[in-house]
Amino acid sequence: MSTIDSAESTANATPPAGTEIDPARQRVAKEYAGIQRRFFFIEMGVMALVLAALLFTGWSTALRGWIEGLSTDSWLVVGLYGVALGAIFVVLTLPLDFYSGYILPRRYGLLTQSAAGWVVDTVKNLALGAAFGLVGIEVLYWVLRSFPDYWWAIISLLLWLFTVVMAQLAPVLIMPIFYKFRPLDDPELVSRLTALADRAGAKVRGVYVMDMSSRTTTANAMLAGLGSTRRIILGDTLLRDYSHDEIETILAHELAHHVHNDLLKGLAAQAVIIPVSMWVASVLLSWGVDQFGFRGIDDVAALPLLIAALSIFGLLTMPAANLLSRSMERAADRYALETTHNRAAFRSVMLKLANQNLSDMDPPAWVRFLFYSHPPISERVRMAE
Known about the structure:
It is a single chain. The chain is mostly helical. Helices cover 71% and strands 5% of the residues. The chain is built from 13 helices and 5 strands. It has helices at 23-56, 59-70, 74-107, 115-146, 151-178, 187-199, 236-241, 244-259, 262-292, 303-340, 343-357, 365-371, 377-384; strands spanning 2-5, 181-183, 207-210, 220-224, 231-235. Helix 3 packs antiparallel against helix 4, helix 5 packs across helix 9 (262-292) and helix 6 runs parallel beside helix 8 (244-259). The radius of gyration is 23 Å and the shape is globular. The protein starts with a strand and ends with a helix.
């Protein structure tokens, strides 16, 4: 699934070239982005402290021992430990999540959702995470027990297959849990978008509207799914405020990822990154068995060490992954400009998105390096100009 950092429109003409950035909104955008970054580092710090405490104080081993006092069944011990560890993280990070995910966007005018709605969505997220997490941890420890020498290779393959399956099923199974979808009731726009998709060789199963306005004032669009589940999805906030030409430009960018086989490239990259990360984790896990007095690599008390190893690897490789992503996004921007021949619409879209979504047009270099999966909007506007 690919998205563009981007709300039914009645204006079909090319947007005026005079669309410009709002300096006041940019000042607010920079302030908001800075606060969000601080919360990212705070949450990472909390996670690191919890994992360190569990490992270096022996609390993880004690927790496993307490659970074994309730049951000696290995499957139940693993499941209960996973629930307990998840509950610890939820209790400690939920206040931060509420502030950064509800209070702040509400304060900055980006969130329309009520507190009750946010709680409902959070419960849904936690339920999905618990379901996938419990299955995952049980499979992980079964593989660790059964294939201790090459468990990392088996888990890597399973994780990669899970990524492929989720790319296929997310639009039809996961996203409807949170958003309502309806077919787009605009024959002219549907015709333009499907024709654009046909020219790109992308077979889509329809054009749908997602009720983003029930939660946010921001706008977005995506080409989601694989094969028979691929569809064009437009946020209702996008349809409300953007012209047909602008929306066509956005979709052209999304279709570029299909034309350039970016999804396959991403899966190929994952086929390398996942095994490397799991191999590194296996080395650290074997080292940690002696250091922390675990019974073996299949001791569930060592789970915090495994999480720490994978988290550190993910943070260290994040800049490289974002560098690859930015390269793909630049190529998609060029494709959109060359396909639509509408520089004014592309430029207008970028500036509108910066104003509407509180996107920092020109972030510091270190922020781009660490966090940006897309080129900053200032660079994308210069490309159009």
